[in-house]
Amino acid sequence: MEWLPLLSTLAGAAIGIVATLVADRNRWKREDAKEALRLRLDLYTQYTTTVKVLGETLRALAEREHPSDGERALALREALRDSGIGTASERMWLIASQPVVQASNSVFHCLRHIRDGYIDGTAVSSPEDRARWEARGKAAAKMRTLMREDLGVGTLTERHSPLPDDWNHPTAP
Questions:
Q1: pLDDT for position 16
Q2: Which of 3, 79, 122, 167 is the most exposed place for a label (fewest CB within 10 A)?
Q3: What is the pLDDT of residues 1-27, one digit of tens each?
Q4: Residue 172: left (phi > 0), alpha (psi -120 to 50), or beta?
Q5: What global pTM score does this model have?
């Protein structure tokens, strides 16, 4: 009996099986990486949208007349709580990289600072209010830059959030 053809056939089969296993593993890794990227994209989109809507809500509530300072404070606290930013923030802590978590946490604290300023009676568009919004804008820009880097889409040259001076000139580009 000749062993060489049998051994060659077995070696070829073993090489084919190993190659198939390696290819399947590589395909699984690629699919897993794509799913993780989609998950982070969804999370980042949810968080940035929540930040934007919450900011608009806080500003609108601060401009609105309220029967009392207590009711104004309650409305502002409820807006933050009901916005979903707490849940989005917790998801960020579980999924995002450390730099993105730190940046998103900074934006969260800026929004709380804005809310607390309105509760304490800071007038909309006052110098203190503008400073808080500028800090939020800078923190949000940094957060978006880190998110874009994490997603591998590069940086933007445009500023997303308006500068405080743009508030008085809505037609400005």
A1: 86
A2: 3
A3: 688 888 888 888 888 888 888 887 878
A4: beta
A5: 0.76
